[in-house]
Amino acid sequence: MGEKTGQEVTHSLSDSFVDLEMSAIYPNYEFANYNISTDVIYTVDYASFTLVVFAYIPEDCYFSISVDETTIMEITNQTLLDHTLVHNGTQVHIEFIGTNDSSIPWQGFLVRLFGENINPNNTYHDIIRSKSKTGLIVGLNIRNEFYGYMQPMIDSNNNEAIIS
């Protein structure tokens, strides 16, 4: 029996991401004589996942989805169309265990993942400092929003100073 494994790490500077995981043949028929194991890791402190599952799992085969090592779905001999799951965590594990019987057909699976960062303390920021001929600019970029301040340079006579 064959093995198809993979791990995908999603690095995102935004507060949300979208991903699509599927068997190689979905929705076409193939024999279910191999295993699939894949991990999707969203690199934030904590996220809310919405998973929409389409799966055609034949008899004697096993399909499961776990979030942070907690199994949230496991099925066998079932068809799911547009089945929605919501769970919090940072890692999704999808597994299909096939059969040794190479005559069992199946159509595969498709899982749409929507992740959203729910940790308000997780901020991505850049500090921006710039000195110009007429002042000092200090800024902070937090989650793609810029907050800045311009301080004009003034000499002792209350005139704008030129910085060289």
What do you see in this structure?
The chain is 0% helix and 63% strand. 18% of the residues are buried. A hairpin with a 2-residue loop joins β13 (135-142) and β14. It has 164 residues and is mainly β. The protein has 2 domains: 2-117, Jelly Rolls (Sandwich), CATH 2.60.120.290; 123-164, no CATH class. A 5-stranded mixed beta sheet has the order 1-4-9-6-7, with no helix packed on it. It has strands at 2-10, 16-22, 30-31, 34-42, 47-57, 62-67, 70-75, 78-89, 91-97, 105-106, 108-117, 125-131, 135-142, 145-152. It is built from no helices and 14 strands.
Keywords, separated by commas or semicolons:
164 residues; mainly beta; Jelly Rolls; 2 domains; five-stranded mixed β-sheet; four-stranded antiparallel β-sheet; 14 strands; CUB domain-containing protein
